[in-house]
Amino acid sequence: MRRVVVTGVGVVAPNGVGKDAFWSACLNGHSGVGPIRAFDASKHPVKIAAEVHDFNVLPFVPSAHRKSIKIMSRAMRFAVGAAGLGIQDAGLELDRENPERFGVVMGTGLVPVDLPELTPALVDSCDSAGRLEITRLGEQGAGALCPLWILKYLPNMVAAHISLAFNAQGPNSTITTACAAGTQAVGEAFRLIERDDADIVLAGGADSRIDPLLILAYTALGALSQSDRPAAEVSRPFDARRDGFVLGEGAGVLVLEELEHAKKRGATIYAEVLGMGSSFDAYAATKPDPKARGAARAIKESLREARIDPSDVDYINAHGTSTRLNDQMETIAVKHVFGENAKVLPLSSIKSMVGHLIGAAGAVEAAALALTLYTGAVPPTINQTQPDPVCDLDYVPNTAREMPVKIAVSTSFGFGGQNAALVMRRFAG
Question: Which residue among the candidates 26, 179, 261, 391 is catalytic per the annotation?
Answer without folding.
Answer: 179
